[in-house]
Amino acid sequence: MERTMRVVTLLIRFLAIATITFSIGLCNGNLGWPPLCKESERQALMMFKQDLKDPANRLASWVAEEASDCCSWTGVVCDHMTGHIHELHLNNFEASFESSFGGKINPSLLSLRHLNYLDLSQNYFNETQIPSFFGSMTSLTHLNLGCSWFDGVIPHKLGNLSNLRYLNLSGFDISNSNLKVDNLQWISGLSLLKHLDLSSVNLSKASDWLQVTNMLPSLVELDMSDCQLHQITPLPTTNFTSLVVLDLSFNSFNSLMPRWVFSLKNLVSLRLSDCGFRGPIPSISQNIISLREIDLSYNYISLDPIPNSIQNMTGLKVLNLEWNNFNSTIPEWLYSLNNLESLLLSYIELRGEISSSIGNMTSLVNLHLDGNRLEGKIPNSLGHLCKLKVLDLSENHFTVRRPSEIFESLSRCGPDGIKSLSLRYTNISGPIPMSLGNLSSLEKLDISGNQFNGTFTEVIGQLKMLTELDISYNSLEGAVSEVSFSNLTKLKHFIAKGNSFTLKTGRDWVPPFQLEILELDSWHLGPEWSMWLRTQTQLKELSLSGTGISSTIPTWFWNLTSQVEYLNLSHNQLYGQIQNISVAPYSIVDLSSNHFTGALPIVPTSLEWLDLSNSSFSGSVFHFFCDRPDETKQLDVLHLGNNLLTGKVPDCWMSWQYLSFLNLENNNLTGNVPMSMGYLQLLQSLHLRNNHLYGELPHSLQNCTFLSVVDLSENGFSGSIPIWIGKSLSLLHVLNLRSNKFEGDIPNEVCYLKSLQILDLAHNKLSGMIPRCFHNLSALANFSESFHGSWGLNEAEFTENAILVTKGIEMEYTKILGFVKGMDLSCNFMHGEIPEELTGLLALQSLNLSNNRFTGRIPSKIGNMARLESLDFSMNQLDGEIPPSMTNLTFLSHLNLAYNNLTGRIPESTQLQSLDQLSFVGNELCGAPLNKNCSTPPPTVEQDGGGGYRLLEDGWFYVSLGVGFFTGFWIVLGSLLVNMPWSVLLSQLLNRIVLKMYHVIVEYV
Predict the structure, then answer these.
(1) Which of 378, 531, 770, 880 is deepest in the core (most CB within 10 A)?
(2) Structurally, how many domains does the chain consist of?
(3) Name one GO molecular function term (predicted).
(4) 859-863 contacts at long range (C-beta below 8 A, 24 or more positions apart)
């Protein structure tokens, strides 16, 4: 018996050891059975790899040696029992271009017959179509091609993948995606599909999108955001019984909100942001208790008040109604949603006060009430919201006599209290309250854009947990010492620009923090550099604009900035030469408005933004632009204007293809505009004003089809205005060719420029007539703003500028450029009549046609141009009367009609009579503001419309008198000629009568 037991025990131990060994072998792939890598599948993967572009060498483990086990390769998952490849995880985790796969997808994947999971998302298959052979990989249950830059029509064969549970074909955004469908019927066969993501795919031709997706019974998540959808039809029967997530954001339905979306009983997340929905929110079924997120932001929903049907959703976590038109008070029932974590009610015209009941919403983490018309005092109960991480009450009308009331109500939260506080632009005044120091857990503090005054108190130094501090754009002043920062060991972001602080620290001071963002614009730091800056080696953003530094840039500074992504040292008194600029890749550098001299510095090819304007850089620009011709420059914005640069405009623009803004104005550049500038196909703004350039414009510029602003004024360009400007540059908003030598007619093609807001062709040699088609310049005919002209990258913002001579003064427009609309054709040799069609430019604010050879009358409908502020028709040959409609120009503050052939009375209006007499000199005009009265004309003559004279009705008497006198004179004279004495006496008498009549006639005339 004992022997039998021993045998059984040994057998059990053997089986246990064998089992463990077998299991370990399976896990480590050391056993030969079952095989862990099928040779045919390994070969298929190698063929697949050969057609891929792999710049980061992510597939280094995929090698051809037979000993290499493909189941251990990167991204490959095998079945441990069969050895077949089941999953390929080849998505780009880092989502960076440098680590993206590209190239082509080899059909060898068809050999992986057991593959059920394929993920190629976040890669860069630029301009290649999704392979149609994917539709033959019927074992797939999971296919993710999202955000991989595929192109063209999605193949219908994907509808053969009847086992699919997950399908993601999304793009990055619709503006960068060329992925589209011609219909969605192929989806109807995917009956097992649970997750469908077609976001940023062009579905504009799929009018049946809703009917098709409604027939997918297993669908749990549907994402069709940003798909150019335009219709959302009613559903007679809603089959979305399993739907949990619905995202239709960023489409253009422009309709009432559909009722069926609020009847989906299992729905947890509803996202309908920026869909153009209008009208009320439909009534919400009481059976819907599963909703946790509602996002209806950026629509035109108008309802007063917020619908109380939402109050039944007691489990709601996120409610986002931002940017709608509610125009109501905050309803009391809203405060009962005590499970809400995010309440976003920004910019919806809320009015009234915040109720003290807000203290019941103790779960709130994010509260946004900014951009409304809320008023009154901030309730003390706000201090009960101890879980808050973000609070934004900016841009309201709160009345706070004592700013400390805000902070006192928030000081009760204890160690787990509020994490973030934003009071931007609430116009709160007074000193920074001492009670602020009680917020011991505060991590982020933003009180920017208010009217806080006083000094940088030590209370801020008590906030030991503070990581982000923004006190910018207040009225704070005084000295700041190193004591204020002694406890701020965790501080990462310190933004305090727009105040009048003076920093006073010891030369050897070492701050207790390592900052990532430092912005001290307008502080008093100079004239020497603050040596403590040398210790801040982690800086990503540094802005010291207008801080009074008067020095050269020290060598150690460029070592400090090697990781900086935003550098602003503008508006100081920095001088000396700059050899190199050392910053992080894709950075922004603003060194404008200083006193630098010498040649332009060497800059990294990866720099994205550079402003060296308003300084004294000199020398040729050749080396700056043409050195390293084989390296593509990443610069997007380049401003070198207002320097002393010389030489020709370089002919090496081939490597500057990313430029969108180029400003070389007010230098001493010479020569022609080179043909290679046509390579700047992304260029939006070109400023070459006030140089010494000449010649004709190269036709290659017609390749720059994104141009919005072109300023070539004050040079020596010649030839005719190119026809291609109107044909190719259809996005032009500003065209300034002033003070050059252009000649010939204005081409009719200029009328194609529908977006043109400023046209300045003054001081050239243009001839011909004003094109009658100018009324087609729709941006000058419509009142809507159509031009923004600004560039924004991170902290930097660059505003477009344009110069327009209006009211006789040269004015530069920047921030309000989008509202400026003017036309100047003065000082040319143009002739003919001013076309009546020109008065169709109803939005025009400034019109100058002076110093030409225009004839005829002022257009009778000139009064239709009611927005005119400046009008100059002087120094022409216009005749006739001033049209009565000119009295409608109530905005007119500058008028010049001098030195024409105008006649008659100046129309009476408050506006015209308030103008200077010089506006009307050199004409035959009368009436105020001239001193010449318009008296009643004599009965003999009347001035006609053409400037001549005609006889009055009673003038016939004088005609008859003349004829009678002529006849009688010769009868009497003839009879007396034979009697000389009598003839002499009679002759003397007649002379006296004639002289007297002559004087009478002269007086009347």
Answers:
(1) 378
(2) 1
(3) kinase activity
(4) 859/834, 859/835, 859/883, 860/836, 860/885, 861/836, 861/885, 862/886, 862/889, 863/887, 863/888, 863/889
Strands 831-833 and 541-543: unpaired
- CA 165, 169, 174, 179 torsion-angle sign: negative
Phi-psi region of 298 (alpha: psi -120 to 50; beta: other; left: phi over 0): left
Residues ≥6 apart with Cβ < 8 Å to 652: 625, 626, 629, 676
- Cβ pair 393, 421 in contact under 8 A: no
Cβ pair 801, 812 in contact under 8 A:
yes
- Let me know: does 542 contact 568? Beta carbons within 8 Å: yes
Q: What is the dihedral of CA 424, 430, 434, 436, to 10 degrees?
A: -10
pLDDT > 50? residue 473: yes
The secondary structure of residue 602, as a DSSP letter, is B
**328 Cβ neighbours under 8 A, 6+ residues apart:** 303, 304, 305, 306, 349, 350, 351
224 pLDDT higher than 50: yes
Distances (CA, A) of 221 to 218, 225, 798: 9, 12, 41
Task: Output the CA angle 239-240-242, nearest 5 degrees.
Answer: 120
725 with 749: CB under 8 angstroms?
A: yes
Alpha helices in 411-560 (DSSP H): 555-560
H and E: helices and strands count for the chain: 11, 67
CB 974 within 8 A of CB 984: no
984 found inside a domain = yes
> Is the torsion defined by CA of 49, 54, 59, 65 positive or negative?
positive
pLDDT tens digits for range 598-642: 999 999 999 999 999 999 999 999 999 999 888 899 999 999 999
Dihedral over Cα of 792, 797, 803, 807: its sign = positive
- Please give the residue that has the higher pLDDT: either 940 or 627: 627
pLDDT tens-digit readout, 17-64? 444 333 434 433 344 444 578 889 999 999 999 999 999 999 999 998
Cross-strand partners of 943? 949
> 552 phi and psi, to 5 degrees?
-85, 165
Q: What range defines the domain where residue 975 resides?
A: 961-1004
Indicate whether 970 belongs to any domain.
Answer: yes
Q: Residue 666 in contact with residue 641, Cβ under 8 Å?
A: yes
Q: Which of 642, 636, 598 is nearest to 796 (CA)?
A: 636
Question: Do 912 and 862 contact (CB within 8 A), yes or no?
Answer: no
The Cα–Cα gap between 876 and 122 comes to 65
771 CB-near residues (< 8 Å, 6+ apart): 746, 747, 748, 750, 751, 835
Return d(Cα 367, Cα 384) in angstroms, integer: 13
Work out the pLDDT band at 16, boundaries 50, 70, 90.
Answer: very low
- CB of 345 within 8 A of CB of 321? yes
In the 8-state DSSP scheme, what is residue 726? H
**Angle, CA of 931, 904 and 943, to the nearest 5°:** 125
The structure's pTM equals 0.71
Query: Residue 803 has what DSSP assignment?
Result: E
Q: What is the pLDDT of residue 795?
A: 52
Structure tokens at 772: 């009658």
Total length of the chain: 1005
Instruction: Map tokens 């010769």 to a residue.
Output: 970
Burial (CB < 10 A; 0-12, 13-18, 19+), residue 506, is exposed
Tokens of 889: 């120009």
- For residue 52, what are its two tokens? 């891929």
Which residues partner with 638 through β-bridges? Answer: 610, 662
Domain-embedded: residue 973: yes
Q: Using CA atoms, how far apart are residues 770 and 829, in angstroms rounded to an integer?
A: 11
The DSSP result for 66-103, as a single string, is TT--GGGSTTEEE-TTT--EEEEE---TT--GGG--EE
